[in-house]
Amino acid sequence: MNHIPTFDDIRETHERISIYINKTPVLSSDAINELAGCYVFFKCENLQKIGAFKARGGMNAVLSLSKEEQQKGITTHSSGNHAQAIALAAKAVGTKAYIVMPNNAPEIKKNGVKYLGGEIIECEPTLEARETTVQKIIDEKGATFVHPFNNYDVIAGQATAAIELIEQAGELNVIMAPVGGGGLLSGTALAAHYLMPNAEVIAGEPEGAADAIRSFKSGKIEKAPYIKTIADGLLTNLGDKTLEIIRTYVKDIITVSEEEIIAAMRLVWEQLKIVIEPSSAVPFAALLKENQRFAGKRIGIILTGGNVDLGKLPF
Known about the structure:
One of its GO terms (molecular function) is magnesium ion binding. Pfam families: PALP (PF00291). By secondary structure, this protein is of the alpha/beta class. It folds into 2 domains: 209 residues, Rossmann fold; 91 residues, Rossmann fold, CATH 3.40.50. The chain has 13 helices and 10 strands. β3, α5 and β4 form a beta-alpha-beta unit. α5 packs parallel to α6 and α9 runs parallel beside α11. The protein is globular, with a radius of gyration of 18 Å.
């Protein structure tokens, strides 16, 4: 796809990927509603295939390739959930996945890629190392590169989570998602724009990786002033495609501290009885931080994933 996904594109995407993904549940909690002062509906993408929403975008991007492109194999670079998504999608169409991962990627995410039959090629934990390693694979294998977020087919796939949330929860005043590279946030904003145009789309971002809010304000891709956060899934900068959509359709980005992320993550574990990773907790942390702003409203939050190292819990 070479254009911003239309509503028809997203609907067709949902039909294309539906047999390969889970329609994840939406959960709520009276205790959380009382504490937050609003009605919160959590879309549980931690219960998605591979334990994260990334299965949607990765699957759509691979299914959208020609048979010839699929047969030559798929490559990407990712520290975790997108890596597993591409491995899953490659397995679904019977081809090879060459996954470039930084050597400090979480073991649980490396193991997930191996389990799905993906071939891991490790590199230094820099964007330059990721990109040069991927290019080498493209040159040697002829594999097709699927960008983790700056790809309209990926964005259309991620939008299907919000489509389901809106169908399951009904009328919402606000839809919230975390922002890293912006694939999910872009898709969420498009889905809301098409289906629920009066709803506000608001993102949560860690203070320790606050590049998106700077880009959102300046209109050009910015880097974070410093990088230090437990939310390892949100360490990426926006792309040109995601930035354009986010600046057009997203209302605001709220930054949160490490302590706020951990407290929100713990609250979800305790009250919803589900496992989520730190990145998932970021938009909920943003809601709790500015709860007066959301008083009495109906809020949808996408819980993005549950791939957490249980040996390194922050609480």
